[in-house]
Amino acid sequence: MKFILVDQLLSLEVGKRIVMAKNVTMAEEYLADHFPGFPVLPGVMMLEAAVQTAAWLVRQTNDFGQSLIVLKEARGVRYGTFVAPGQTLTITADAVEISAGRSDFKVKGTVGPGGATAITARLELAHLNLADTDKGFARSDAVAIAAQRERWQVFSQQTGAPALA
Amino acid sequence: MRWIWIDKFEKFEVNVAAVAVKNVSLAEEHLHDHVPGFPVMPASLMIEGMAQTAGILVGAARNFQEKVILAKIGRARFSRLVRPGEQLVYSAKIVNVSEAGASIEGEITSRTSVGGKPVELEVGAIDMMFSHIDKNMSGMKFPEFNFVFNSQFMELFETYRRELNVELPEKP
Amino acid sequence: MAMTQEEVFSKVKDVLTTALAVDDDEVTPEARLSEDLGAESIDYLDISFQLEKAFAIKIPKGELFPENVFTNPEFVQNGKMTAKGLAEVKSRMPFADLSKFEQDPDINKFRDIFTVDTLVKYVMTKVNG
């Protein structure tokens, strides 16, 4: 599978807050294992959706300055309601701090019109370039950043999808 | 992709602790787009590896009669990136188990090599909690059958149960 | 050796900052676990476990956070706790201050009686006998 756990950008305030959506669908193979007869989005995939959402805010805030944005620490990750196929998990990530090398977030994931809470957490992300430790990796940094810029275009152009008149 | 994030049990002591390993391989698709051009194991899937190791340990404490669900991650912290070719080692220890759920302390290390010499390096530490959902989420309806301990987890456990001489307690 | 209220409070505070991922200064004696500190149901189990460890005490099921009170129609009617229910809760939880809840025994507000101070008082009864 593609390890992409967000589908749509709902709102963005650079440096402050981002809201993204993850659609859960039966077409995702791993749901057959989690669980047979009771398909629900695994808790760690909700967490991954939150990490990816927060990482997009970091890239926007730091203008794609670092190729790797990864989870360094998660605290107080609490799960509420399950998220089933056909439902959408909406992740809101509020930045507590974003600097060049690290960031802190409060994140929350909700489901449905009533906004039932599916996950809440505090996240610390680490931002780095591979070339910082080994100059030989400068090309990998460039490849990763180019791929991320391209993916971001997909999110930011969604509202402008052409009509089929 | 399938949803099984451990490959083998190395130790299993009912009510106490378990150790499972997971090989990280370039054959796994998800590695290729987590960071394009630089495959690393996502932290969230390492948390899942620990949750599966610990979840089976918690399940065994009550002979798999409870539906054991990851309910909380108190803290998960990571100190290094894990790359293909490495072998993750998940060591889970039961801190407390009650009728309602259980708490776990886990450590993750990685077996790899540095300068041609085999080493085991620290990767992270995780505190997590499991809920026995039939006892907690009253009002919510779940299937009668135990969907958590489905065939794939039980097959994995059974494979190593004899080898590791695991005696399950009586069904509560 | 007997512990003072300050000693108990300081340890309870450590438990809550870890269990609920809140800051030190948020944990005041009056703070309500659910409403002010964001505790969810799994956190109550976590807090029980962590208090047992921190104070080397045993917390029997239902002693700190009562169970089977809300599902009993004798104790709860139309979303309000009955006089019988209140008496039951009082006898089970002598360490809790129920005076506010008694004025409006709406069961949705029951969780408000669990303040940091309630935990401190409960632990005091356990460690000092």
Average pLDDT number of chain A: 93
Going across the biggest sheet of chain B, name each strand in turn. Answer: 1-2-4-5-6-3
The average pLDDT value of chain B, as a whole number, equals 91
**What is the H-and-E element order of chain B?**
EEHHEEEEHH
For the sheet with most strands of chain B, the description reads: 6 strands, antiparallel
Count of helical stretches of chain A: 2
Can you tell me about this structure?
The complex is a heterotrimer of chains A (165), B (172) and C (129). By secondary structure, chain A is of the alpha+beta class. Chain A has helices spanning 43-61, 138-156, and strands at 8-13, 17-23, 68-79, 88-98, 102-111, 116-128. Chain B is 22% helix and 38% strand. Chain B has 4 helices and 6 strands. Chain B has helices spanning 31-34, 43-61, 133-136, 151-161, and strands at residues 8-13, 17-23, 68-78, 87-97, 101-114, 117-132. In chain B, strand 5 and strand 6 form a beta hairpin. The radius of gyration of chain B is 16 Å and the shape is globular. The N and C termini of chain B lie far apart (35 Å). Chain C has helices at residues 5-20, 41-55, 83-92, 99-103, 116-127, and strands spanning 76-77, 80-81. The mean pLDDT of chain C is 90. Chain C is built from 5 helices and 2 strands; from the N terminus they run H-H-E-E-H-H-H. In chain C, a hairpin with a 2-residue loop joins strand 1 and strand 2. Chain C is mainly alpha-helical. Chains in contact: A-B, A-C, B-C. At the A-C interface, strand 3 of A face loops of C. Strand 3 (68-79) of chain A pairs antiparallel with strand 3 of chain B.
Task: Put the structure in a nutshell.
The complex is a heterotrimer of chains A (165), B (172) and C (129). Chain A has 165 residues and is an alpha+beta fold. Helices cover 23% and strands 36% of the residues of chain A.
